[in-house]
Design a protein that fits this description.
The protein is α+β, with helices and mostly antiparallel strands. The protein contains 2 helices and 8 strands; from the N terminus they run βββββαββαβ. The chain starts with 5 loop residues before the first strand and ends with a strand. The model has no long low-confidence stretch (mean pLDDT about 95).
Length: about 130
């Protein structure tokens, strides 16, 4: 069975950033656009629109984001794999964030055209 997924491209450029494990969640991280905040014993990781991230923060910039149009059931398998496989097989780096209702795929802006092509060739649709 071939899984075909609709992806919606989100507007703006995103940054993936790392703060210290004990740092407070910065107020500037929240706002419009997709925001993901994860804390582990080792770090506080944030994904948000890059235009609001201070230059002094350790970050990787210039990501474009796509939302997998769900929601998908937790026991539904192969959804994410069907999307990342064509990118991985063509040596494109990704950053993936899952939420309760869906998944968000980020690729570097320089790889956007290639990602769109490989996803389309795999039967996925970008809206």
């Amino acid at each position: 069975m071939t899984i075909k997924v609709k992806l919606k491209q989100l507007s703006g450029r995103y940054a993936v950033l790392r703060l210290g494990a004990g740092d407070a969640i910065p107020a500037w991280a929240d706002g419009q656009g997709f925001v993901s905040i994860s804390r582990t014993d080792d770090e506080l990781s944030v994904v948000c629109l890059q235009d609001r991230v201070p230059d002094a923060v350790k970050q990787d910039r210039d990501w474009v984001a796509f939302k997998l149009q769900g929601p998908f059931a937790f026991d539904e398998t192969g959804i994410v794999l069907s999307v990342i496989r064509p990118l991985s097989e063509n040596r494109l780096g990704i950053f993936l964030v899952s939420t309760f209702d869906g998944d968000h795929l980020l690729v570097k802006a320089t790889d956007e055209a290639a990602a769109r092509r490989f996803l389309g060739e795999a039967g996925h649709t970008i809206v």
